[in-house]
Structure formats: C-alpha cells, structure tokens
Amino acid sequence: MSTNGAREVEKTLDRISKLPDAVLIQILSLLPTKDAVASCVLSKRWRYLCNSIDNFHFDGCSYYNNVENFVFLVDHVLSHCTCSKIKKFQLILPYNSEWNFDLSISRWMNFAVERKVEDVVLCLCDDNFTFELPISICTCSSLITLDWSCCAIDKESVIQWKSLKSLKLNYVFIDNDDLAKILSGCPALETLELSLFEGFRRLEITSSNLKRLSLGSYWWFYGRADEHLEIIAPYLQHLEISGDLDYLKCKLVNVSSLVTATLTFNITCITEIEGFADEDGCSDYHQGFRNLVLDYLQKLSYATELTIGRWFAEVVFMLRLEGVSLPKLRCKCLTLEMYVTKNNLYGAASLLQNSPLLETLNIPLRARAFNDFRCQLELRYLDKGHDIDLQSWISSFGFPNLKNVKIISSSGVCFKDHFKQGFDKLLKLSECLLKNATVLEKFVISKSIKCEICSINCVSTSLSQMAEKLLGCPRSSTNCMIIY
Known about the structure:
Elements: H1 3-17, H2 21-30, H3 33-39, E1 55-59, H4 67-79, E2 88-93, H5 102-114, E3 119-124, E4 131-132, H6 135-138, E5 145-149, E6 151-152, E7 166-174, H7 176-184, E8 191-199, E9 202-204, E10 212-218, E11 227-232, E12 238-244, E13 248-254, E14 260-266, H8 283-299, E15 305-309, H9 310-321, E16 333-337, H10 342-353, E17 360-365, H11 376-383, H12 390-394, E18 404-409, H13 420-436, E19 442-445, H14 458-471, E20 481-483
Helix pairs in contact: 8-9, 9-10, 10-13
C-alpha cells in the first residue's frame, strides 16, 4: 500500500474512532465475532471494546482441520466478555468425527444462559451427526427465538421456554412425546418451523398464541411408504408445507382458523422405491393423493390467500379428469408457484374456476425440477390433457373481482428447453383472463435478467412476444393496462 493510501486508511479509522463507544460496540456486534476481535487491533481505543459486544456469531465451518483453534477462539472471547445480557448467540460447529463437543457446548450455553440470552442459533456444519441440546438451555426463561439443527432432546430433560416466540428445528428426529413436551413448555410460542424432520406422526397445537406453522421436507430414514402425519391446529392462521415429503402425507384434521396457506410440497409415488417393479400397482396409492388434495381444498376453502405448487396443481387436474367437483374457495390472492406446462395450467385453471372472489393472481415461472419423477399411471393421466382446449376449460366462467395479474419470471434458471411446452397454454390462459375479468386493472409481465446457462434471455424473449399478442387481445375491462 502506498504512503498516501495508508494515510487515508488512518484518517478513516480516526473518524470512526471518534464515534461514541456505544455506537462502536453496536457496529462490532454486527460483525462475525472472529472479525470483530480482529478489528480491535486497529486502534488502541478499540482494544477492549470487543469485550462489551452482546451479539456473538461463531462460524466454525472453516475450522474443519483446526477444531482446537475454534474452541480456543470461543473460550477466549467468552472469558473476556463483560456484557451482562446477550442479545444473540450463534454457534455453527465445525464437523470433526474425532472431536466431542458436548462439554464445550454445555460450557458455552451455560455462559449464554447466565447472561439472559434472547436469541440462539445452534447447529453443525455436517448434518450426518447430532448432539444433545444442553440441559441449561432447556430451561432458559429469557429465550425469545431458538434455531437448532442436528440436535436431539434428552428424554429426561424438562422444557421450560416461557418467553420463546419462535422455534426452528432442522435435521431433527423427535417422536410424538418429544414434540408434545416442547409445545407444552412454550406457552408464548407464535411461530414453529420444522424442516427435514422425522419421528412424530401427530402434531397437535392447542395454544391460541401459535399462529404460524411451517413444514419443509421430510427426513426419510426408515419406515414404510404411505406414512401419515396428522395436524390438529384449530387456532393456526398461517400454514406452509413445502419441499420433498417423500412418502409422507400430511393430513389436516382441524385448521379451521387458517387465513393463508402455502402448499408447494411434492409427494413421491411408491414406484420410485427401489425394487418396486409393478408400475400399475400404485392405483390405490394415487387415489390417496387425490383424496388428500380434495381434503386440503375443503379444509382451506375459507383461507383468503393461497400459494399452490406444481404437484398440487397436477393432482387438481387429475381430480377434474375424474369428474370430481371441487369446493368453492374464498381465496382473494392466489399464487401459482410452478414451472409452466400444460398440465400445471389445467390444474391452475381449475383452481381459478373455483375462486370467484379472487382479486390478485400471481404466477412465478419456475424451472423444471431435475428429479421430476413420474410413474406410468401419472403419465397416462397427464397425457389425457393433450386434446383439451384450455380456453374451453374455463371460457364459461367469469372473474368478477379479479383486479391484478402478475407473471413473474425467475432469474438464474434456464427455460429454453421446456418453457415452450407450456408457453402456448400460458398465452391462452392470459387471453381468457383478459377476456373474462371485467374489473381487471393491471396485467403485469415481468422481465428477467440474461440467462446464465443458455447465454440468451430465454424467458424474456417469449414473454415479450406474449405481451405483444396480449396487447391486441380483446379485454372486457376498459381500465385494464398491460405492463411489460
């Protein structure tokens, strides 16, 4: 660095050093703790400021071969800490199969609990191993949020989190008793997020405070296909079920207070199980799919905001092919989160038909999933859509309340090879909306950035052509604007 450059850095540091100690401590608390410690050597005045930080972020993922250094860093920082209350304690442990962290974790968590920690994040860099949640944290009355991964609960532990409002469990195996114990020990809990979970088959939420539940991906270790999880949550207002559930079917027993629901999950056909050769033997299994989706529509008929994914929309299409009458939905905002194919759009059109109160429709375009397994039975069902005219599918139905439509293209994914399969159907659907939505105000088609895979703007080219065609399409609303 040149002499002038060094002087500029020195001037900058000098200006920062003139800030009050409380401001400097707040700035240091926002940094990863390793960087905060290193920053304190820049100035004599800063030397002891790091001891007063109340936000700790220890990331051990880069310490794979230097676990001792990571343990020393955490011990050193905590031994010099002078703050009386910790706002956040984030601990990401380095994976090393030869290192036992139990004593260290217990020591560090005891430290955080003694200083009335409010927010804790605790996880391993590797998800193939688990560790027990320290006993001290299980009765921490100051906890407001807890996010743990790869942790287990000692059967003898008592859970008492009287102030906890948000709980996230990732890569976790807990049985029905464990889950019931957790919920009973969190009377103030408002949000529960479970991702990559396994073990329990009944989720009963009796607290009127818990309003938001998120289930994301099933951690399928063992057991049999066609597993069921019952959800009883009469006070729940917001539900999200996403990711790959493998063979787990989440059954909604009581969700009578739901306002919003996001259903973007996938369930795997039994024929994907290794060694299962009878591809026509899954008929009853798929009938279970259809019964499940029909039950969801009935249970969610009073929700005002819905987000529907590809798998769900395709099963809706199968229900319509079977001549099943779908329940009317009171949905006012509908998001169809899927990649565009004709079968997705037939299911989407069926949902639109049964949403007479709909005011806002969002269609985020997604790339096709790489693991997009279809058994022979599913393919035969979906092939029946080849000869169906999408316009006739919904042309007899109006959209008396629809005011806003937005088609959103994703960035960083390539649509070149498969987007064209459903593009004509998307155009037909858009034409129907313009023709039948009497109070439509805005029809927005968003642009995407240049594709990083095929090196052309593969989606925007198609969307631009669609926008041009829609400009000349008849509209029943005189106030409608098409925005691209």
